[in-house]
Amino acid sequence: MSRATRVLVTGAAGQVGVDLQDTLRGVTPLGGDASFQPDGRPVGEHEFEVLGLNRRDLDVTDRDAVLRSLHAARPDVVVHLAAYTAVDRAEEDVENCFNVNEQGTALMSLGASEIGAHLITISTDYVFDGTKGAAYLEFDEPRPLSVYGASKREGERHCTPGDTIVRTSWVMGVRGNNVVHVIAERAASGANVRFVDDQMGTVTAASDLARSLVSLVRARPGGVWHVANSGATTWFDVAAHVGDLLNRGEEFATPISTSELSPPPLATRPARSDLDTNKFTSSFGELPPWRDAVARLVFDRPRRGEVPS
Predict the structure, then answer these.
(1) Mean pLDDT on 202-227
(2) Which sequence spans correspond to the domains of the chain?
(3) If both were cysteines, with which of 22, 32, 211, 272 could 27 make a disulfide (CB 3.0 to 4.6 Å apart)?
(4) CB-side neighbour CA atoms (13 Å) of 111
């Protein structure tokens, strides 16, 4: 009998982290689709041994702590999810953002290399400036507009050619704070919403990203991969779709331009940063359409006052 693959997950308490740990253990997380198996293989019983570390367990900016943890755990694969993700706050908290997203990724790559583990790290569509006018490919030149985007790009630069970099976007999970929860709460309360229709991107359900990461844990391909649910959309379209799912009328969601936001966001977002995922689709399989992913999030989310398991 072969030994279980030992996987160390940083950022284990985040919305992708909790879904990934479930998935590695053979459990379909809330908002997940049990039939989605991009590599055509279900997760086997005892296939993976999972070690999840949250911020209290490991400060990814502490060199000694990172190296000590990796040498002690001796994982086969490190999935580095820990990140500074407060996009607007980062504009005024530059040092902390770069410490986590650049230095933290550099240390995880160094540590993984020292122990012979494969690193899978998560990056973002915000490494692009949105001026291409079409979906971004893995080899398109990054030109970040924000501190957050720049910090994630610098983190990418510290990775070795053998590391796997996964760029994803607009990540939403049942167990996490995200826009879909906000929209659904407003819909349930009878209120209406206003969302921008001049920012285009790709939605990613945390559960679908988690299952895709399992495929990459198995394959350990190296290089850059774009992973997101299929189909580009806008925030207004997401809001309108949630309203439809919850039986709100057309008046529920109103489109506005980014320039109408008040107060204006501190960070500049790319106007169009949808990711071309054909590389992942060709090698593994296509992620479900974004509308299906959002529907699963809406109908699996807990009602107000309930605590998700």
Answers:
(1) 98
(2) 5-300
(3) 22
(4) 31
Contacting residues for 64 by C-beta, under 8 A, at least 6 apart:
none
Kindly report whether the peptide bond that precedes residue 263 is cis, defined as omega within 30 degrees of 0.
yes
Residue 74 tokens, joined: 């001796």
**CA–CA separation, 200 vs 167, rounded Å?**
16
Catalytic one of 84, 126, 136, 148: 148
Q: What is the largest CA-CA distance in the chain?
A: 61
253-268 residues labelled b (16+ CB within 10 A) or e (exposed): bebeeeeeeeeeeebb
**Secondary structure of 187-245 in the HEC alphabet?**
HHHCCCEEEECCCEEECEEHHHHHHHHHHHHHHCCCEEEECCCECEEEHHHHHHHHHHH
Average pLDDT over all residues of the chain: 95
Each residue's pLDDT tens digit, 154-178: 999 999 999 999 999 999 999 988 9
By three-state DSSP, how is residue 72 classified? Answer: helix
Positive or negative, the CA dihedral 5, 173, 122, 74 is: negative
| Cα–Cα distances in angstroms (integers) from residue 52 to residues 106, 108, 184, 211, 257, in the given order | 19, 14, 30, 16, 40
* H or E segment and range at residue 172: strand 171-172
5-300: in CATH 3.40.50.720:
yes
The 3-state DSSP class for residue 74 equals: coil
Q: Give pTM, 2 decimals.
A: 0.95
From residue 131, alpha-carbon distances to 17, 18, 201, 272 in Å are 31, 34, 13, 7
Euclidean distance between CA atoms 78 and 271, whole angstroms: 33
Residue among 14, 41, 43, 11 nearest 27 (CA)? 43
Residue 81 sits at φ, ψ, to 5 deg, of -105, -20
Is residue 148 among the annotated active site residues?
Answer: yes
Number of residues that this document lists for the chain: 309
Between the alpha carbon of residue 68 and those of residues 50, 71, 119, the distances in Å are: 18, 5, 16
Residue type at 232 in one-letter notation: A
